């Protein structure tokens, strides 16, 4: 059986009707939706319906019912006020990005102390059939989060990046979102298989932990990283110093690479506060055996200061902007 997270179909909605006034409408709504083959199941005061039923049903609820006592939930089973349902419905375009794999992989060079290319970070960019140009990545991932499609989008990006890695024959850094992964043994198996099919040495892959929200289950994250490690891949902690990526997390995860967040990189040569932070994370990286990498380097004086202090790898516009892989 295919995992629904890996191969998302149409979203189904659970609609819960509360209150005595609303209860009298349930049988009429159930009959109406059944006749149009839009009702999947009913359980007391909860109807499970297809997404195509939502626009008309919502219009009826707002016109004739006490909508403040009507709630909906997706597969995550989080009940929300019915007034929020239109946002979910209007973001269907992200499903098309996933289904049609409208993802283009860009690559940005990562250089060593001699400014020779060490590898590339793989960055996903997205298109919509009805729009010109690329969408902002944040907009796409936010839409996927709202529609409970995070794993499916993360997987499409990951698999597309692995396919493009074969064209570069260098170390490649690929982002992944740990909280989107249910079980590494199942969810990441396809990534491992694809790398094997393409004949790419696993040691060329570095999977970056990208997470702006706190990872509550650190054991789950460690399980994911251990799975990668057992398969011969390396891993990095991204945006160190920002959000989830703290000094404590760096020392607990002991990644192969530590990527210092750009806000401590840009202007570091003239900012004592940033210098102290850069040195602190550099010392932590040395302690756990992580290769220190500074991202977002734009000025040569910052590059020279970081290099002098002991940073080994560098990424930023000073060395090259992201460009599509052809």
UniProtKB/TrEMBL annotation:
<dbReference type="Pfam" id="PF00563">
    <property type="entry name" value="EAL"/>
</dbReference>
<protein>
    <submittedName>
        <fullName>EAL domain-containing protein</fullName>
    </submittedName>
</protein>
<dbReference type="GO" id="GO:0071111">
    <property type="term" value="F:cyclic-guanylate-specific phosphodiesterase activity"/>
</dbReference>
<feature type="domain" description="EAL">
    <location>
        <begin position="86"/>
        <end position="326"/>
    </location>
</feature>
<dbReference type="InterPro" id="IPR050706">
    <property type="entry name" value="Cyclic-di-GMP_PDE-like"/>
</dbReference>
<dbReference type="InterPro" id="IPR035919">
    <property type="entry name" value="EAL_sf"/>
</dbReference>
<dbReference type="InterPro" id="IPR001633">
    <property type="entry name" value="EAL_dom"/>
</dbReference>
């Amino acid at each position: 059986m295919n995992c629904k997270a890996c191969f998302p179909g149409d979203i189904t909605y659970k609609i819960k009707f509360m209150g005595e006034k609303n209860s009298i409408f349930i049988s009429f709504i159930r009959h109406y939706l059944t006749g149009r083959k839009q009702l999947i199941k009913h359980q007391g005061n909860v109807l499970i319906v297809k997404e195509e039923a939502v626009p008309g049903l919502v219009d009826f609820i707002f016109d004739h019912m006490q909508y403040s006592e009507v709630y909906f939930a997706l597969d995550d089973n989080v009940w929300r006020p019915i007034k929020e349902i239109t946002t979910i419905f209007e973001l269907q375009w992200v499903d098309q990005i996933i289904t049609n794999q409208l993802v283009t992989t860009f690559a940005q060079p990562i250089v060593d102390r001699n400014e020779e290319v060490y590898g590339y970070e793989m960055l996903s960019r997205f298109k919509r059939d009805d729009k010109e140009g690329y969408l902002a990545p944040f907009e796409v991932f936010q839409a996927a989060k709202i529609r409970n499609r995070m794993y499916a989008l993360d997987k499409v990006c990951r698999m597309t990046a692995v396919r493009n890695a074969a064209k570069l024959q260098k170390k490649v850094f690929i982002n992944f979102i740990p909280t989107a992964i249910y079980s590494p043994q199942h969810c990441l198996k396809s990534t491992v298989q694809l790398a094997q099919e393409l004949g790419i040495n696993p040691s060329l892959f570095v999977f970056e932990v990208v997470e702006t929200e706190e990872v509550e289950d650190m054991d789950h994250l460690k399980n994911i990283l251990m799975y990668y490690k057992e398969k011969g891949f390396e891993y990095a902690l991204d945006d160190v110093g920002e959000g989830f990526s703290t000094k404590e997390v760096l020392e607990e995860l002991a990644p192969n690479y530590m990527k210092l967040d750009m806000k401590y990189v840009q202007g570091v040569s003239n900012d004592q506060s940033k210098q102290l932070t850069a040195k602190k994370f550099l010392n932590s990286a040395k302690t756990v055996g992580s290769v220190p990498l500074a991202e977002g380097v734009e000025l040569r004086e910052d590059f020279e200061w970081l290099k002098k202090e002991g940073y080994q790898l560098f990424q930023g516009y000073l060395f090259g902007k992201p460009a599509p892989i052809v």
